[in-house]
Amino acid sequence: MLQPATSDELLATSYERKCRTCKNPIEARARLNKWYCKASCRAFVWSRANREFSSTITVADFENIREQIKQFEVRMKQRVMGYALIKAHPIYEVVTKIGKSTFPPKGRKTKRSPDETGKICFSSTPYFSFAPCFEGPRVPVVGHFQVKVWFEGEAEPFLTGLHVEVRKAFPAVQFDDEKTGQRYTLKGEVIPPKAPKPPKPPTERKKRKPATALRPQPDREASTERVAEVVPAAAAQRAPDAELVAQVKKLGEEQVRLTNERTDLLATISRERALRQESEQKLLRATSMPKPPAKDDSSSVLQAALGDKVTKLEKSLSELRGRVTELEKGNASLTKERDDLTTERDALKALVVEQKLGHATLARQLNTLEDRATIAARERTELTAKLAAVEHQRDELAAKPAPQAAPAPTAAPTAPAATADAASADEGAVSTPPTGPTGIVIPRLAFGGNLPPASSPKTGPPGLGILGQNHRPPIRGSANRNHKRR
Fold this sequence. Notes:
The chain is α+β, with helices and mostly antiparallel strands. Helices cover 42% and strands 9% of the residues.
């Protein structure tokens, strides 16, 4: 009996999905929106889409560093031949061990970024080239670095107070410890030094392939100078392994000695060149200065005077350099203070805008209150006018005499009713409120005779308007049953 096909079999038979990176087939039971067969393929695509490769970094990305060093060169009036950058490791524990690192490191051959011509090279110079061709720095992190420069004709570097911003980094560069020579990664891990390679064992020379293996050659006589098929190592008169190692070691020591001598010679040549340039400048200044009219002028006195002046000039120049460094540090602190003041000013501006909005709101509320006060004053005036009319009406009613009814013989049984009417009239007069809702005192009306009650829940006050209302209005509808007076 045939069994129904499963969903995996249906997917496998319908179409076959392939990885977008390695083109390997993806499992049929995997989710339908899966594009890569494994995590490494997905990571490869993500790194190509999001990483910035060092091959795309050019010298144009460091144009701001070039401009700042150029401005410093103009201020110092000396030509800068090279520069180095100084920065501490981002991890504090590593900083306490190695201190600040210099890029490029001193005494080690490192890879350099392409210059203006696009050439990439390796060099052991302790600085990046600035003139005649500008060479971009290779540093492991972005951020602000302190600058150290080499002036033309000077062998020692000059530490400046200039700080530049590096916007492109090479993660493959490590932080160096100048004391021990160890290297540290960005994570603070120590990179162990590479072990020296062991010497290769001596090999035996083999017979060269005959020319007939390449192409047919004409017949010729065999040469007696040909090498045998296999020449043993002893016959080749090679040195044993121990002697070979000693010779290699000796050659290495000799190479190190020659390298040190070459470095010393280069340093001596640089010093001699600097002294020669300084002597030429002194001689040029001496020949350009007018001679004093003294009769006992001599070359020794002139040289002594020139030496004193040169010493003073060098001392003043060093003081000026120190002052320039201090001024640059002060300028950096002032720039920071300016930024802080700008931030405070923006905050104060925002606070002033909020206060202005609050004042506008208060002004609108004040205008509303003034309008309500004006309306209340107008209503008070109208009520005062009505009060005068009511008082006049009261006076007229008080001046008018009450009518006297003639006694009737049959009025005896109705006396209790009249007494009740009079009591209700007095009761209404007593229930008249002494004051109105506005606080104005209203004298009680002295009505005589059988008058209707002053107020009742049904009829309200007798013609006094709102002045006589000191009770709530009657409740209409079905809710009146629960509020009836008992």
